[in-house]
């Protein structure tokens, strides 16, 4: 007997299941040349540690998509891989070495990289184990890493081609500098945070006079790099000073007073200090006036030799000393507190320093122009939700040149070489001959990640089988926080090097927040480890929560209450499955097929069998429609309602009238229908909850192989029976109404009471009267198209029928009228809503005909109920 344990235990169900799937190779592409290809490349997690909930969300949604497409017969490829994450990984390894008192410089580049590769192997193994616990169905035979030789070849080719076109260049520009990681950062690697600071008001003396000008700055230490002060040429206050010089305090360097529109007469004192090597606006001023640019800071954020007596001090310690010295000189006028935004490194968290530096850049104007133009073509990337297309377009329209060099050892070393003669060579391979030294810097990690969709498919070999078959990829799933970092760069690089968009669809999800709506962070201590959640609830429960948490693009709050609800839902299905397996373990596949045919032809089975098959059809259709739109939350809601309410709470209970009866032939039909619906429910659920659905699926009497490659449910028109659907809906509504009335007058189901039903569908209701009797316990049951309405009776109006329970002695007429008036108000509210919708010309003109008709049907139903309740109130008041 294929027994299930009395209670769902995720640890037992999920143990070893993933390894069995891998052994069976069920995750690999089918190789069917007639099947439509569907491909996803996994957003690569970096190798700095464990998966976080955001990545668990990515992988869950992608796995749902790929599992469903695989079951639908697509030739699916889900290609896994990992990102080397230059800054983050190098910092992690350096921190580990520091615990043993070792600096990277002590080892040298090659030996340090050996340590990083050891780290990569350790954490890549951890990540793959966690992928297994999540149940993601990737093809490990195609696993890639951004530093693989094939991907490295693609990186070199792209760099060289862009360089030869003049779109990669080396130059001295103002960039964002991370003093902790000691590397350049791109604009989008800088996070602006609001912090407490101050405006320091300082006086500069006019050379050769006793006159002073006052400037205000939030970074007084940068005066060490000042090369001018500017005023607006229209500012009458300072016209007499233009062309003169000021003397920088303490260091006594003389710099000119110039005019420039950058000086705002209405802002501050109207006098602006210019520090070209440490401020982007000042850099532009210096370019206009051909000013010298003095870098006053070392790579680690300490003051360099240009800082005089402050040389060697940390930038913030130097600020304190300079402020104290200025105060002693009498040239510190005031300190005014201010709350302002300051750039911080996205990787290390330290305050970023704008700094003049020689770096490698990607010229973005043409690449951005191509990406923008492509969004107006048939090859446009479709964003879900569509509003993120605007986010993408706005960034591309305002993008700056991309600084791509990083002062690191871990990463793709820049393919440029220099010799003592001052010559530079750029190529995919090292130049021939002696005396060449490769550029020590590496490329921004996002440079290689931008090539991920096609470099992982074998490009630059455009004849690669995978590239020809599976590129462009079908769908990318990622969070909105990396649209700029990654999504945008993949699009413009793919268009440039393959002539195609890298993917057809981009599904954007939000961030996972804690129960209070706060972003999860180490500082708050509110992070949730998905592996801890899996240990307690199982991967299926976590995946159900992640897929049903929110609509595309929306943030979601993690909640243990929701995890409890997810586990309870799985346990409900588990118990339903136990009941069905105990009652239908010997039903053959032929018996199921034969029974379903008879039910469809109405030669056997009852109305509840035809109803549940109709509802199953509708559920499969609606779930598939919502999954195709990436509305996993809506799809989950539809599945939940069908499984919990219609299948478990109603159909299973209704079948007990048959299962506890004497008609063996009817029992056989019901058992077959139960098995079929359970089978289809498991298939519909499998993409979301792979582990326990496989566990139950393999215990069904008529299944073979893995549910991973089982056929996904399709609508079977022969099962549609609108009359059965409407009839059982009326039956359920009637039973529910009786239970509600009994509850209102505190009359338990165990006490039999008389019941009268007035309905145009009396023939049908008489046919299903055994169900009515079983679930409502009437002492007398009268069903007729026309009957005398008792004076003292509780009543209810349902679709297609009026229900009366003559509860003499239990009913209070005034209370019954009050109850009915509340019901009347409810139907009036429903009528108002429908009338408002149908009165909207835009809705009627633009909605589908069936949607409009559905609203009209509602209107007729609500009006009938309103009229009936109103008439009943009038009757009671007359009596």
UniProtKB/TrEMBL annotation:
<dbReference type="GO" id="GO:0002161">
    <property type="term" value="F:aminoacyl-tRNA deacylase activity"/>
</dbReference>
<dbReference type="InterPro" id="IPR014729">
    <property type="entry name" value="Rossmann-like_a/b/a_fold"/>
</dbReference>
<feature type="short sequence motif" description="'HIGH' region">
    <location>
        <begin position="45"/>
        <end position="55"/>
    </location>
</feature>
<keyword id="KW-0648">Protein biosynthesis</keyword>
<dbReference type="GO" id="GO:0006438">
    <property type="term" value="P:valyl-tRNA aminoacylation"/>
</dbReference>
<dbReference type="InterPro" id="IPR033705">
    <property type="entry name" value="Anticodon_Ia_Val"/>
</dbReference>
<feature type="short sequence motif" description="'KMSKS' region">
    <location>
        <begin position="519"/>
        <end position="523"/>
    </location>
</feature>
<comment type="similarity">
    <text>Belongs to the class-I aminoacyl-tRNA synthetase family. ValS type 1 subfamily.</text>
</comment>
<dbReference type="GO" id="GO:0005524">
    <property type="term" value="F:ATP binding"/>
</dbReference>
<dbReference type="InterPro" id="IPR001412">
    <property type="entry name" value="aa-tRNA-synth_I_CS"/>
</dbReference>
<dbReference type="InterPro" id="IPR009080">
    <property type="entry name" value="tRNAsynth_Ia_anticodon-bd"/>
</dbReference>
<dbReference type="InterPro" id="IPR037118">
    <property type="entry name" value="Val-tRNA_synth_C_sf"/>
</dbReference>
<dbReference type="GO" id="GO:0005829">
    <property type="term" value="C:cytosol"/>
</dbReference>
<dbReference type="InterPro" id="IPR019499">
    <property type="entry name" value="Val-tRNA_synth_tRNA-bd"/>
</dbReference>
<dbReference type="Pfam" id="PF00133">
    <property type="entry name" value="tRNA-synt_1"/>
</dbReference>
<feature type="domain" description="Aminoacyl-tRNA synthetase class Ia">
    <location>
        <begin position="17"/>
        <end position="429"/>
    </location>
</feature>
<dbReference type="Pfam" id="PF10458">
    <property type="entry name" value="Val_tRNA-synt_C"/>
</dbReference>
<feature type="domain" description="Aminoacyl-tRNA synthetase class Ia">
    <location>
        <begin position="435"/>
        <end position="559"/>
    </location>
</feature>
<feature type="coiled-coil region">
    <location>
        <begin position="810"/>
        <end position="879"/>
    </location>
</feature>
<feature type="domain" description="Methionyl/Valyl/Leucyl/Isoleucyl-tRNA synthetase anticodon-binding">
    <location>
        <begin position="609"/>
        <end position="753"/>
    </location>
</feature>
<dbReference type="GO" id="GO:0004832">
    <property type="term" value="F:valine-tRNA ligase activity"/>
</dbReference>
<feature type="binding site">
    <location>
        <position position="522"/>
    </location>
    <ligand>
        <name>ATP</name>
    </ligand>
</feature>
<dbReference type="InterPro" id="IPR002303">
    <property type="entry name" value="Valyl-tRNA_ligase"/>
</dbReference>
<keyword id="KW-0436">Ligase</keyword>
<feature type="domain" description="Valyl-tRNA synthetase tRNA-binding arm">
    <location>
        <begin position="812"/>
        <end position="877"/>
    </location>
</feature>
<dbReference type="InterPro" id="IPR013155">
    <property type="entry name" value="M/V/L/I-tRNA-synth_anticd-bd"/>
</dbReference>
<dbReference type="InterPro" id="IPR009008">
    <property type="entry name" value="Val/Leu/Ile-tRNA-synth_edit"/>
</dbReference>
<dbReference type="Pfam" id="PF08264">
    <property type="entry name" value="Anticodon_1"/>
</dbReference>
<keyword id="KW-0963">Cytoplasm</keyword>
<keyword id="KW-0175">Coiled coil</keyword>
<comment type="function">
    <text>Catalyzes the attachment of valine to tRNA(Val). As ValRS can inadvertently accommodate and process structurally similar amino acids such as threonine, to avoid such errors, it has a 'posttransfer' editing activity that hydrolyzes mischarged Thr-tRNA(Val) in a tRNA-dependent manner.</text>
</comment>
<keyword id="KW-0547">Nucleotide-binding</keyword>
<protein>
    <recommendedName>
        <fullName>Valine--tRNA ligase</fullName>
        <ecNumber>6.1.1.9</ecNumber>
    </recommendedName>
</protein>
<keyword id="KW-0030">Aminoacyl-tRNA synthetase</keyword>
<dbReference type="InterPro" id="IPR010978">
    <property type="entry name" value="tRNA-bd_arm"/>
</dbReference>
<keyword id="KW-0067">ATP-binding</keyword>
<comment type="subunit">
    <text>Monomer.</text>
</comment>
<dbReference type="InterPro" id="IPR002300">
    <property type="entry name" value="aa-tRNA-synth_Ia"/>
</dbReference>
């Amino acid at each position: 007997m294929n027994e299930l344990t009395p209670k769902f235990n995720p640890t037992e169900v999920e143990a070893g299941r993933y390894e069995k799937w891998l052994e069976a190779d069920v995750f690999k592409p089918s190789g069917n040349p007639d099947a439509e290809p569907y491909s996803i490349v996994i957003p690569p997690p970096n190798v700095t540690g464990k998966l976080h909930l955001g990545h668990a969300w990515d992988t869950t949604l992608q796995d749902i998509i790929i599992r469903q497409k695989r079951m639908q017969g697509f030739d699916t490829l889900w290609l896994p891989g990992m990102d080397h994450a230059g800054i983050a990984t190098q910092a992690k390894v350096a921190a580990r070495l520091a615990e043993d008192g070792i600096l990277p410089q002590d080892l040298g580049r090659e030996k340090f990289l050996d340590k990083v590769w050891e780290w990569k192997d350790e954490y890549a193994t951890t990540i793959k184990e966690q992928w297994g616990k999540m149940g993601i169905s990737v093809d490990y035979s195609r696993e890639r890493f951004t530093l693989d030789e094939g991907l490295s070849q693609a990186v070199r080719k792209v760099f060289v081609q862009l360089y030869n076109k003049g779109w990669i260049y080396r130059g001295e520009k103002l960039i964002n500098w991370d003093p902790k990681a000691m590397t350049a950062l791109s604009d989008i690697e800088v996070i602006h945070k609001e912090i407490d600071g101050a405006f320091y008001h300082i006086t500069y003396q006019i050379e050769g006079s006793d006159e002073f000008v006052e400037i205000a700055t939030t970074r007084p230490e940068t005066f060490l790099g000042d090369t001018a002060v500017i005023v607006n040429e229209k500012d009458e206050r300072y016209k007499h000073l233009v062309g003169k010089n000021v003397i920088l305090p303490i260091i006594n360097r003389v710099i000119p007073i110039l005019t420039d529109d950058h000086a705002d007469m209405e802002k501050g004192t109207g006098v602006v200090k210019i520090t070209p090597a440490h401020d982007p606006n000042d850099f532009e001023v210096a370019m206009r006036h051909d000013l010298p640019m003095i870098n006053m800071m070392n790579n680690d954020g300490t003051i360099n030799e240009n800082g005089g007596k402050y040389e060697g001090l940390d930038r913030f310690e130097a600020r304190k000393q300079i402020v104290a010295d200025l105060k002693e000189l009498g040239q510190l006028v005031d300190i005014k507190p201010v709350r302002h935004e300051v750039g911080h490194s996205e990787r290390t968290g330290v305050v970023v320093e704008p700094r003049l530096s020689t770096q490698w850049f990607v010229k973005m104007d043409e690449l951005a122009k191509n990406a923008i133009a492509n969004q107006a073509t048939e090859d446009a990337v479709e964003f879900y939700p569509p509003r993120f297309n605007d986010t993408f377009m706005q960034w591309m329209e305002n993008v700056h040149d991309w600084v791509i060099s990083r002062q690191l050892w871990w990463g793709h070393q820049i393919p440029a070489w220099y010799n003592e003669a001052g010559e530079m060579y750029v190529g995919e391979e090292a130049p021939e001959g002696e005396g060449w030294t490769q550029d020590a810097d590496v490329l921004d990690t996002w440079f290689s990640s931008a090539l991920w969709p096609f470099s992982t498919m074998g490009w630059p070999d455009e004849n690669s089988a995978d590239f020809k078959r599976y590129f462009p990829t079908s769908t990318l799933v990622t969070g909105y926080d990396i649209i700029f970092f990654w999504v945008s760069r993949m699009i413009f690089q793919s268009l440039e090097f393959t002539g195609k968009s890298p993917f057809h669809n981009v599904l954007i999800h939000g961030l996972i927040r804690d129960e209070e709506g706060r972003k999860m962070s180490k500082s708050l201590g509110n992070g949730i480890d998905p592996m801890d959640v899996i240990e307690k609830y199982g991967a299926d429960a976590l995946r159900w929560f992640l897929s049903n948490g929110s609509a595309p693009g929306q943030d979601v709050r993690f909640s243990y209450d929701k995890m409890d609800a997810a586990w309870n839902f799985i346990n409900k299905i588990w118990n339903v499955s136990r009941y069905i397996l105990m009652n239908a373990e010997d039903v053959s596949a032929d018996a199921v097929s034969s029974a379903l045919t008879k039910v469809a032809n109405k030669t056997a089975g009852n109305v509840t069998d035809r109803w549940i098959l109709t509802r199953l059809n509708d559920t499969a259709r609606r779930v598939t429609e919502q999954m195709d739109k990436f509305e996993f939350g809506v799809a989950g809601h539809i599945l939940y309602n069908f499984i919990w309410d219609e299948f478990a709470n109603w159909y299973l209970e209704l079948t007990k009238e048959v299962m506890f009866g004497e008609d063996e032939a009817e029992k056989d039909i019901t058992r077959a229908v139960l098995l079929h619906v359970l089978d289809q429910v498991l298939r519909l659920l499998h993409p979301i909850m792979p582990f326990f659905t496989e566990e139950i699926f393999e215990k069904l009497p008529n299944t073979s192989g893995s549910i991973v490659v089982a056929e996904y449910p399709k609508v079977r028109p022969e099962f549609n029976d609108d009359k059965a659907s409407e009839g059982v809906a009326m039956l359920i509504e009637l039973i529910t109404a009786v239970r509600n009335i009994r509850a209102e007058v505190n009359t338990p189901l165990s006490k039999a009471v008389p019941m009268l039903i007035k309905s145009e569908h009396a023939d049908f209701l008489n046919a299903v009267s055994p169900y009515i009797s079983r679930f409502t316990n009437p002492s007398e049951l009268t069903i007729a198209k026309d009957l005398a309405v008792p004076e003292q009776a509780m009543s209810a109006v349902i679709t297609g029928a009026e229900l009366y329970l003559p509860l003499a002695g239990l009913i209070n007429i005034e209370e019954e009228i009050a109850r009915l008036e509340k019901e009347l108000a409810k139907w009036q509210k429903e009528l108002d809503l429908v009338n408002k919708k149908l009165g909207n010309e835009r809705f009627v003109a633009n909605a589908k005909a069936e949607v409009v008709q559905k609203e009209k049907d509602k209107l007729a139903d609500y009006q009938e109920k309103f009229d009936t309740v109103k008439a009943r109130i009038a009757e009671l008041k007359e009596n």
